[in-house]
Amino acid sequence: MSLLDMSSGGPSLWVPEWLPRLPQRLVEMLLQYFGAPEWLVTTAGWITAAATVVGVFLGGFALLSLVERKTLARVQNRLGPNRAGWFGILQPVADGIKMLTKEDIVPAKAERLLHLAAPILIVLPSILALGVIPYGREWVPVRLELGLLFFFAVGTLTEMAVFMAGWASGSKFPMLGAMRAISQMVSYELPLILSALGVIMVTGSLSLPDIVIKQGGFHLGFIPAWNVFTPWGLSATLVFFIASIAEANRCPFDLPEGESEIVAGHMTEYSGFKYALFFMGEYLGLFAVSGLFITLFLGGWQAPLPGLTGIPTWLWFFAKLVAVIFSHLWIRGTFPRVRIDQLMRFAWLCLVPMALLTIPAAGIWVLTGGGLIGWLVIIPLLLIPWVILTTVFNHRLAPQTRNYTFADS
């Protein structure tokens, strides 16, 4: 009997639902075949599962860097990368070679060890966060009962890495950029976490697979039972999505890299591959927070229609991930960058109050059993503050009429 026919009592290796775990299972079966101890089999399986997730999203990082430039070029009616390979398909490879061959310059006053560690630590939290997201019914790299808490906990390491990059550079510009980046990240982490509390209240668990399973089924036979299709969930979805844009350092909240305002922020004194690591961490962070957004509000790997449940669940997850990522690209090509005062006011005076309101709304939803009474109570509770806040902000942030005086010719 060949190795490929050994299933150890489990499902076939070639069942589509189990394909993402194929490398892990092959390694485990190979070690078992040669009589390896159980601890070695388990450890090797974990390492292979982690390597699979990292490999998938590193490939996604390379692909997204090309797709984003092509998308922005199409939005702005210009040509994107089209020289490296057919239709510019090899542009990520050319960028990687360029970054690897560029000179690594370290300022004379920099703390060399911390200057080296900062770009590494900026990538590590995103990789750890990607490990707890359930990508399919049978593809959960690490099952944690406190998976959501772990996700937010490792996310706080990003602030430390940003501060380390700014301080270790030994220059005032990176330090000022790091302070601005940290203030933005801390401000938008609060509504991000608060908007997720309603999901915890309704689900009764911090386990991300349990949150996805709770959103299974359909209302009226065709409406998915996702959190976004509830009154409290829709408000929390909007708050979480907006806050996630700022957390991922995406336009219109990409102030840490406001080149025209503060050089390149905390990355000013970096070059070569270390500079590329910051962008890798940014893209991996975008994958992680988008994956969490899908898990909390869009049903995770659940199918959108009853007749489509036979399709492998991990395909549904990545289809939703592509849609969410494309919305980020669309927003970047559409909206201009906001000012720092607008950014902070919007977080503390708009998103935080709305995120706080989703908590009692979720409580009312649970107490009323999700019935008609819950809809009648929650809709005015959330709609009236939304209207008031958007009206106030539109009035205060709208461009005012300016009078220009030109010199007489």
Count of individual domains:
2
**Into which percentage range does the β-strand content fall?**
under 5%
Count the DSSP helices.
14
Helix content: 55-70%
Order of helix and strand elements from N to C terminus: HHHHHHHHEEHHHHHH
Description:
With 409 residues, the chain is mainly alpha-helical. The protein has two domains: 16-101, no CATH class; 103-388, no CATH class. Helices cover 64% and strands 1% of the residues. The protein contains 14 helices and two strands. The protein has a two-stranded antiparallel sheet with strand order 1-2. A hairpin with a 3-residue loop joins strand 1 and strand 2 (223-224). Helix 7 runs antiparallel to helix 9, helix 7 packs parallel to helix 13 (340-367) and helix 13 (340-367) packs antiparallel against helix 14. The longest helix is centred in the N-terminal third of the chain and has 38 residues, at 38-75.
Overview features:
2 strands, 14 helices, single chain, mainly alpha, disordered N terminus, 2 domains, two-stranded antiparallel ribbon
Topology:
Elements: H1 22-33, H2 38-75, H3 91-101, H4 112-130, H5 147-155, H6 157-168, H7 172-203, H8 208-214, E1 218-219, E2 223-224, H9 231-247, H10 259-262, H11 272-297, H12 313-332, H13 340-367, H14 372-397
Antiparallel strand pairs: 1-2
Write a concise synopsis of the structure shown:
With 409 residues, the protein is mainly alpha-helical.
